[in-house]
Design a protein that fits this description.
Elements: E1 13-14, E2 20-21, H1 25-33, E3 38-40, E4 67-69, E5 101-103, E6 113-115
Parallel strand pairs: 3-4
Antiparallel strand pairs: 1-2, 5-6
């Protein structure tokens, strides 16, 4: 229920009776997490890090965001990297300390494969 006691549609739906689904629920929730979250659904879309290549507008320390690739039914998403350069793994722990890319096959998975340094 909204401020004026009007109906509020669940995330991912719109319309006077919330009849139009414009995003899967999990994708809509992910978009609410950060203003930088994006969902890509079309072929040949270019994805860049927040603010890239402008050094003054790049992601700030502690920033977390998601970019969801959603392939059409019966198709698959394919990532091709032109550049990938973030801080490397911590020497002692072997973890990606600050900057990283995590790839999940499903947004509802708890953890995905993590990449840092120039591992891709």
């Amino acid at each position: 229920i909204g401020k004026n006691c009007d109906c509020v549609c669940p995330d991912g739906t719109v319309g006077s009776t919330c009849e139009k689904v414009n995003l899967k629920y999990n994708d809509a929730i992910a978009l609410d997490f950060s203003k930088y979250n994006l969902v890509f659904t079309k072929a040949d879309e270019k994805i860049t890090s927040v603010g890239y290549p402008d050094k003054d507008k790049r992601a700030t320390t502690g920033m977390r965001y998601s970019q969801v690739l959603r392939a059409p039914k019966c198709q698959r998403a394919v990532l091709t990297f032109e550049k990938f350069a973030v801080q490397g793994r911590h020497e002692e722990s072997g973890t990606c300390a600050f900057d990283l890319l995590e790839i999940r096959e499903d947004i509802t998975q708890g953890m995905g494969q993590k990449f840092c340094g120039n591992e891709i």
